[in-house]
Amino acid sequence: MRGRSPQPLPLSTEDVAILQRIAHSQTRPWYQVRRARTVLGIAAGERVQTLAEHLQCATRTIHRTCRRYQQQGLEGLLSNAQRPGHPFEISPPAARANRATGLPGTDC
Fold this sequence. Notes:
Layout: H1 13-23, H2 30-43, H3 48-55, H4 59-78
Helix pairs in contact: 1-2, 2-3, 2-4, 3-4
């Protein structure tokens, strides 16, 4: 077969139980479910290309997810990372009822 051979990804027994629950969850956020399935698949010895096709994502996503688990552990894998850039802000409400809020289109 072509492509990289799978790198071993050691998982602790506690992490395996938690990841299996998350991988089968229908109420968790999608990114946590996909990350759990990714880590479990690589730990089981699946090839990266096969797993990427099954999960409908890029092979880089598989490598990035595994690296994230190795560096940050289960806590980092399941957390939603802070995105770079300026945070979204909403203008504060008007000080008085007769004062405009400063948002375009709110004077109607």
